[in-house]
Design a protein that fits this description.
Layout lengths: L1 H9 L3 H29 L6 H26 L4 H26 L19 H7 L11 E2 L2 E2 H21 L4
Antiparallel strand pairs: 1-2
Helix pairs in contact: 2-3, 2-4, 2-6, 3-4, 4-6
Length: 172
């Protein structure tokens, strides 16, 4: 299915192709951000600090997509640069998701302010007051046994790779 979709997009006119990619990027990132906000405000799935960081990447993707749609109408920037930019912002989103997902899987330690490890020392009270109540290494919500950070990593890396393939293929 992805191969057929890629083939259909590759055969479009370059300006239509790029416009479609930017609109899809806007829609997918908006959907992910709105879903996270829905879970937070209506299902009481509170975000940790890294979840909020990942949201900023989606805000960047949304803004980049909108700005590029407007700029492309004036043709002030080459289309390859726009596709490279979209691939990079999705890649950074995916890397942030992979970092968070790795922390959830206990593959590596996260920031001290974002883990459930408690340092029992004389400064315990100050340490606890400085920590977020929501821990980055505790999964708050899963879909098909994968956390939202994991899904963010999967979707973001796939879109980044898709944009990279389009960039390498002829047509831009």
């Amino acid at each position: 299915m992805l191969k057929k979709l890629t083939a259909n997009i590759i055969h479009l006119d370059p300006s239509k192709k790029l416009n479609l990619i930017l609109k899809l990027s806007f829609f997918i990132s908006s959907s992910m951000l709105i879903s996270a906000l829905y879970l937070q405000y209506f299902e009481n799935v509170l975000p940790c600090d890294l979840c909020i960081t990942q949201r900023w990447f989606h805000i960047a993707i949304i803004l980049y997509s909108l700005i590029m749609i407007l700029i492309l109408r004036t043709q002030l920037i080459h289309m390859k640069l726009v596709v490279l930019g979209i691939a990079l912002v999705w890649l950074f989103s995916g890397l942030a998701g992979m970092y968070h997902f790795g922390i959830e899987l206990k593959l590596w330690a996260g920031p001290d302010t974002c883990t459930s490890n408690i340092n029992f020392s004389k400064d315990l009270l100050q340490h606890l007051l400085n920590k977020s109540p929501i821990k980055c290494d505790e999964v708050m919500f899963k879909i098909f046994d994968i956390s939202l950070a994991g899904w963010n990593a999967i979707v973001s890396i796939m879109i980044s790779l898709f944009a990279g393939v389009l960039l390498v293929k002829k047509g831009f």
